[in-house]
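Much of what follows relies on a compact textual record of a protein's fold. A record is reproduced here so that you can trace the correspondence yourselves:

. . .
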Amino acid sequence: MSMAEKLKLAMYWAASCGGCEISIVDLNEKILDVIKVADFVFWPVAMDFKYSDVEAMPDKFIDVCLFNGAIRSSENEHIAHLLRRKSKILIAYGACAYNGGIPGLANITNRQGMFDTVYKTISTNQNTLPKISARVPEGELELPQLYDTVKSLAQVVDVDYYVPGCPPAPKIVEASIDAIASGKLPPKGSVIGPSKALCEECPREKTDKKITAMKRTFEGMPDTKKCLLEQGYLCMGPATREGCGTPCINANMPCTGCSGPADDVTDQGAKMMSALTSVLALEGEENVSEENVLKMIQEFPDPMGVFYKYTMPTSTLKRRVMK
């Protein structure tokens, strides 16, 4: 492939932690294959680019844009529309762009609720709240406005493909790059990666064991060979897409669900709650009293953060209704 034929690639970081940017570096020597087939024409976290550089590009100038991060501010939304217009293919890259990710948990409150907590409770500077404009010697600065509701990328602009993960696993990134370079992309709207539940690739032994209590990760040391869920540790594997290579489970930690729902799952949180009924001895068990049932429910101190850690904005709930 000649230099003239190289793909024009862009990568942008909206509301996220930056891990998706590092996932490109995690390719190790595979990143040399990326350089062979693509030139980055916009990647502000790694090189000096300005928004004006993108605005000056002709429409559809960028072949592929990997957009990571949720949409939680006016700046995020503005750049999402700009990069959609300038890109032939727009990919929601990583959990935050795909399903809203951890930033999406802000939907259990609103902008004012966050400001009250951060600036009036936690911060020592309790008299200053974020503004959308500021006067400086050079003039008036317009600043991004934080939205009440966090959204996924596809809830704001048209998205061509999705790459799951927090961040995407190296083999998923490799598969994505190979598909882009070869032009052998799946049908529009597809998630690039396996479609089944994580339990399919989990190496642990599974039985039909019933449990009467749930444990948190700091309570005891799990057996490394047995299903974590059947040991009482909340593992999101039954409701989560496979393909990550189970690094958390290999480290003896339960899956938290960062790859989002498998293809046959509509709502990841609801699916997980349904899966729990198959292992919790809640019905038809003589020794489980109402007191024990309530005790098990109370063992989830943060159910929204557990069941919708990465998918609140795209779930059936989407956000809390604020009075």
